[in-house]
Specification:
single chain; about 65% helix; globular
Length: about 160
C-alpha cells in the first residue's frame, strides 16, 4: 500500500508572492494609520534614502523611478527563477524588493492624491534626529543585512 502524497498548501512561487505582498501591505497600512491618526509625526521625503536628490530636476527623478522599477523587476525574476539561490538569500532580496515597491506605490499615491506632498514618500519613524524613515526602509535595511550575511556564509561554506 502506497502512502498518499502530501499536496503543499502553497507552492514556492505563491509563498514568495504572498510574503512580498504582505510586507508591502504592512508598510502601506502603517503609513495610512500614521497619516490618519498622528499627522504631526509625518514628513514627506521627495528624495531617496536620507533625502538625496530631494531638490533635483524632473529628469533625474524619472531616471531614478525607471531604474527602481527595472531593479525591482530584476530582483523578483531572480528570486522566482533562480534555483541555486538559498532561501535566506531569497528572503533578503524579497525584503529589499517589497520595501522598494511599497515606497514606489506610496510615491505614486502621494503624487496623485496628496498634491502638497508631490511625488514623495511618507516618513514617520524618527531615528534620534539623524534621519526619518518608514517601515519599507526597515525592510530594505533588514533585507540588505540578511542578503549580506547569507552571501558571506555561502562563500565561507564553499571554501
Amino acid at each position: 500500500m502506497t502512502k498518499p502524497q502530501k499536496i503543499p498548501l502553497f507552492s514556492r512561487k505563491t509563498t514568495l508572492v504572498f510574503v512580498f505582498l504582505c510586507a508591502g501591505a504592512v508598510d502601506l497600512i502603517s503609513k495610512f494609520l500614521v497619516v490618519e491618526y498622528n499627522p504631526k509625526s509625518v514628513l514627506y521625503n521627495s528624495g531617496v534614502a536620507f533625502s538625496m536628490f530631494s531638490v533635483s530636476e524632473v529628469v533625474p527623478k524619472m531616471m531614478m523611478f525607471v531604474s527602481v522599477v527595472v531593479g525591482i523587476t530584476g530582483l523578483l525574476i531572480a528570486v522566482v527563477k533562480r534555483a541555486q539561490m538559498t532561501t535566506t538569500c531569497r528572503l533578503g532580496v524579497l525584503l529589499i524588493a517589497s520595501g522598494a515597491f511599497a515606497n514606489g506605490v506610496d510615491r505614486c499615491f502621494n503624487m496623485l492624491h496628496n498634491v502638497s506632498a508631490g511625488a514623495s514618500v511618507t516618513d514617520f519613524i524618527n531615528y534620534s534626529d539623524l534621519f526619518t524613515g518608514n517601515v519599507a526602509d526597515v525592510f530594505v535595511v533588514l533585507g540588505s543585512i540578511v542578503l549580506a550575511v547569507s552571501m558571506v556564509l555561502e562563500t565561507k561554506s564553499n571554501r
